[in-house]
């Protein structure tokens, strides 16, 4: 996969997730906040978790992309190179990995009763990230790195980040859909 394909896949998946989130707009506050058990997240908490996580990445992108001296590349001819830790995280957040994981405290969802604002915030964050990526698509994402918000010793390159965000969003959107389809889910 080259950087152009990575960016296109990220943008396509993000647009799809923005469309999918609209299915939750018809839910009541009670439905958004319903949990099968106290140990599990509600639909709103799944989305809040994505908002908390993606705001961290959005802030990093906004800060880094202000630098006009970032390494440029030909996105068609530059292969994606994931870092060692990036590959591990990508594997962990991949929706096909059914292993339940506990999140790091920094990524915990805000604890409260949510309204539709949690859905609106998701859309806003995703649109901002997409715009930044689109406007900077000629940057060599392999060469720009950041420390993981969960552990400063872990370095992730921006190719890692695009794949992590894409898969992580998909993982929790799938989780929210499973909650919606639960036989005990309230009808109003």
Protein described:
By secondary structure, the protein is mostly helical. It has a single domain, classed as dinb family like domain (Four Helix Bundle (Hemerythrin (Met), subunit A)). Helix content is 52%, strand content 3%. The protein has six helices and two strands, in the order H-H-H-H-H-E-E-H. The chain has helices at residues 3-21, 29-32, 43-64, 84-93, 117-135, 158-180; strands at residues 145-147, 155-157. It has a two-stranded antiparallel ribbon. A hairpin with a 7-residue loop joins strand 1 and strand 2. It is elongated. The relative contact order is 0.24. The mean pLDDT is 92.
Counted beta strands: 2
CATH architectural category: Up-down Bundle
| Largest beta sheet: strand ordering | 1-2
Determine the strand fraction and express it as a percent band: under 5%
Largest sheet: 2 strands, antiparallel
What Rg, in angstroms, do the CA atoms define? 17 Å
């Amino acid at each position: 996969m080259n950087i152009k394909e990575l960016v296109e896949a990220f943008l396509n998946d993000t647009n799809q997730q923005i469309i999918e989130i609209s299915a939750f707009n018809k839910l009541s506050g009670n439905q958004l906040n319903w949990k099968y058990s106290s140990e599990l997240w509600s639909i709103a908490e799944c989305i809040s978790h994505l908002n908390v996580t993606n705001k961290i990445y959005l802030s990093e992108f906004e800060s880094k992309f202000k630098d006009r001296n970032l390494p440029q590349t030909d996105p068609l001819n530059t292969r994606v190179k994931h870092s060692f830790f990036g590959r591990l995280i990508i594997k962990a957040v991949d929706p096909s990995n059914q292993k339940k994981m506990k999140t790091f405290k920094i990524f915990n969802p805000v604890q409260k009763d949510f309204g539709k604002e949690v859905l609106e915030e998701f859309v806003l964050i995703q649109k901002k990230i997409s715009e930044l990526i689109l406007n900077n698509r000629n940057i060599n994402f392999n060469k720009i790195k950041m420390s993981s918000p969960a552990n400063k010793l872990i370095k992730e390159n921006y190719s890692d980040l695009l794949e992590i965000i894409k898969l992580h969003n998909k993982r929790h959107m799938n989780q929210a859909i499973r909650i919606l389809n639960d036989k005990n889910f309230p009808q109003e």
